[in-house]
Input
Amino acid sequence: MIDAHFDDLALVTSTTQACVLLGASRATRYRRRRPRVAGPPAPRPTPPNALTEAERQHVLGVLRSEEFCDLAPAQVWARLLDDGEYVCSISTMYRLLAIAGENRERRRQRTHPAKKKPELLARRPNQVWSWDITKLQGPERGVYYDLFVIIDIFSRYVVGWTVSPAETGELAEAFIADTLTRHGINRDQLTLHADRGTSMTSKPVAQLLVDLGVARSHSRPHVSNDNPYSEANFKTLKYCPPFPGRFGSIEDARAFCALFFDHYNHVHRHAGIGLHTPASVHYGTATEIRAQRARTLDAAYAANPARFRHRPPTPPKLPTVAWINQPNPETLIKSA
Output
């Protein structure tokens, strides 16, 4: 009905008025008069003020010249204008550089060699240690205590920890030296891995490790996965149910950490080491404990084989190696 009377009404009024009077959409009317054409869009005509090919090459030659090759187009445009020369607008310079694939940073950039991915292997305790520092919230906002922790990556045993009111290279040096002495670490026996924090890369710590014959290893910048054992240990600490939101004093923090790390080393069964305690793996009693577990399972199987679907159960295996960034099999084959 609307279409039957629209054209007659539009002749005596206008298209807009006819759409208003009949309640029709003006955009729909215009679209029906000029339907879309299937196929690719028509090529855009060249603007009458476009640069010629010779002019475009001249602009690129100016931008690539020794005088201007390190400058931004706005700088080039202004300097040319001060010399009484105009070649094109700033946006045209950017457009021509983009077409040529040269619209990136034009200044010389300092390049940093890629940081080597640490690949550390431990086959026994006291071969590779990992250490890190985390913050513990104090009684008030802005008050923090620093928890230093060293963990053996093979046994997951926390070989040393301390809580201090601040983080310095000198404190880290004394802490590491005391831990190495208590565990009787010999020269060329141990690799100590850490991230790139200020204390970890400090001169006192670096000199200490050189003097004691301890190899030093660092994570790549901003790659927390390069220090997984310390990060996982801190998560276990801060996600345990009794962990408080804040500590009333540094003595409270030290008392809590003493209880936690004693439980972690001697009571907590770690899934990464066959559900043994870190202490049993670190001090070599895990093999005997696993044999006792096997005897218990054998007795349970003998009493009721159907419960196990006639498949003798075995206790979880003990770890044989611990990696930080284990190489893929192809890399190991090439290096063999």
Notes: The two ends are 85 Å apart (CA to CA). The first strand starts at residue 120 and ends at 122.
